[in-house]
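Protein modeling request. Please complete all fields; requests missing the sequence field cannot be processed.
Requester role: graduate student
Desired output: 3D structure, token encoding
Chains: 1
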Amino acid sequence: MLKKLDPLLNADLLYVLAAMGHGDDIAIVDANFPANSKAQRLVRMDGNTATEVMAAILTVMPLDTFVEKSCSTMAPVDNSPEPEVVKEFKKIANVAEGRTVEFAETERFEFYRQTEEAFAVISTGERRLYGNILMKKGIVPPE
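Delivered output (143 residues):
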């Protein structure tokens, strides 16, 4: 155990987060997502929800402020209202960053394509539909 780190931040996930550079994307995906076939690097966190994993990651990783929208979620295929899990993603990002974070909504197959280009994919046990998010890593400025 390490002090002051969220216990969800296991060794594999910490390695991925530390190895990422500014502008790299990380995908957090739900239990239905084809993570094995889409990931360059895969970290499995099957016992956790996507929102739990996102909240843990954002305790150590800043979101990119050099782009208009540093987070992207998968658009529902049936044009239904915004899923509750997406509302939760937004709330987590806003609290972690202390500002309003702009989100993009990406068509399903385009989201799959972007996930294939992501630095890593974190596969969760999230059962809520559309529990998928891409986040772009920002910078930690000098003190």
